[in-house]
What does this fold into?
Amino acid sequence: MRDERLPLVRRHMALRCAVGTYGPLGFHATWAYLSATACPAPDLRRDSAALSRALDALEESRAAHLAEMAALAARRRAEKAAGRRTPRASDMAALRGPRWPSSAPPSRLGLIAAVANRHAAFQRAPYPDETLSTDIDVRRLSHLHTRLDDCASSYLRTLGRLDRPAAAELTDTVHSIRGLTRPGYSPLNMYVLPWLRFANLLTYAAASSAIEH
It folds into this structure.
């Protein structure tokens, strides 16, 4: 990717492959984050310097992630030696969900771009109907879909600054969506799990903006 002798299209593809290997926010959200923070234009394919800045940001995040995982592994070895076999809930949380590991706070602009990208996908996605789960009222699905859409719209409208009532509404919405998921295979999961992934990204982005203040 750093070989400036290569055509930009090949370097662009190499960066996309790198994001496919390490995309801490998910592929599309990570790409939106890098695009927003690496250059003022939305298209990395036309800016060699921006491609390099995007790779720098991705490599810095991955290095931070590897350092965190190494520290976690060392701590777990010590805990196991001391007889503590079960990891802390906070340790497990660090392994799940979207997050931008870094030595510095994540970019609010990048997270807004990531949420905007996934919000657009959420709005375009096919909607489940009542035939997928006989124990779920389709009106409940519609209500939760609307609530999550409203939470995302509020986040984007306020540029990441959710007030306390809006943040509480988001927390309750995520909890309600999680309650719809089913263990193992379920046709409803094909719809609800993407909602939950988007809701988790939105929660992380909102929490990151709150920490700034």
Q: What stands out?
A: The mean pLDDT is 89.
